[in-house]
Design a protein that fits this description.
The complex is a heterodimer. Chain A is built from no helices and eleven strands. By secondary structure, chain A is an all-beta fold. In chain A, the strands form two sheets. In chain A, strands 2, 4, 5, 6, 9, 10 and 11 form a seven-stranded mixed sheet that branches. In chain A, strands 1-3-8-7 form a four-stranded antiparallel sheet, with no helix packed on it. In chain A, a hairpin with a 2-residue loop joins β5 and β6. In chain B, strands 2, 4, 5, 9, 10 and 11 form a six-stranded mixed sheet that branches. In chain B, a hairpin with a 7-residue loop joins β9 and β10. Chain B is globular, with a radius of gyration of 14 Å. Chain B starts with a strand and ends with a strand. The model of chain B has no long low-confidence stretch (mean pLDDT 94). The chains are: A mainly beta, B mainly beta. Chains A and B meet through β4, β5, β9 and β10 of A and β4, β5 and β10 of B.
Chain lengths: 115, 113
């Protein structure tokens, strides 16, 4: 296992379309996080899972966003009816709850452009 | 709302220069502070996780210090090299907050050969 992977790396979509991103964490990691980074800003927290349970969601995560981690392994982030403001880098990270200090390992991100 | 701020926003230095960046964060409910290096088209890479007031950590030419009482951390790079060019991010974790990272805006470092 070489690290956190994300697919696709780039996505261009038209406003109003739905998109789905996938994150595969490091295999023994039980926590999985989604962050979003817009131009000129640091990444912002969106949501996190412990195993398959979604434990926290940011107010940034509008009703158009949904995330799942059905078997406690990979996760998907879906954005419905995309808007231009959704254009950003979407980052996934994973960590192991049993390994202090719970370092988060990041994937390379999915860059979304909404035209 | 947690305020994590980094300065400067960007920095251009010559190869061989030493440099440092600042991260300021809330001094209450501190749990941990992370430093990451993020090169273009790559994954953010963890540099340090700092948890105790007065912590000093070092990895090669890069070192970091932590002051939780006043809410700041410094990252130092000694003898910058072109391969150090990247965005350096700090991220604060609040106690009892599910280990969520609150990032600063980053410092973009460009090292000219």
């Amino acid at each position: 296992d070489t690290g956190v992977s994300q697919d696709p790396r780039h996505k261009i979509t038209k406003r109003g379309q739905n998109v789905t991103f996938r994150c595969d964490p490091i295999s023994e990691h039980n926590r999985l996080y989604w962050y979003r980074q817009t131009l000129g800003q640091g990444p912002e927290f969106l949501t996190y899972f412990q195993n398959e349970a979604q434990l926290e969601k940011s107010r940034l995560l509008s009703d158009r966003f949904s995330a799942e981690r059905p078997k406690g392994s990979f996760s998907t982030l879906e954005i419905q009816r995309t808007e231009q403001g959704d254009s950003a880098m979407y980052l996934c990270a994973s960590s192991n709850r049993e390994e202090w200090p719970y370092e988060q390992y990041f994937g390379p991100g999915t860059r979304l452009t909404v035209t | 709302i947690l305020n994590v701020e980094q300065s400067p926003q960007s920095l251009h230095v010559q190869e061989g220069d030493s440099t440092n960046f600042t991260c300021s964060f809330p001094s209450s409910n501190f749990y941990a502070l992370h430093w990451y290096r993020w090169e273009t088209a790559k994954s953010p890479e963890a540099l340090f996780v700092m948890t105790l007031n007065g912590d000093e950590k070092k990895k090669g030419r890069i070192s970091a210090t932590l002051n939780t009482k006043e809410g700041y951390s410094y990252l130092y790079i000694k003898g910058s090299q072109p391969e150090d060019s990247a965005t350096y991010l700090c991220a604060f974790i609040k106690a009892n907050a599910g280990n969520m990272l609150t990032f600063g805006g980053g410092t973009r470092l460009m090292v000219k050969p």
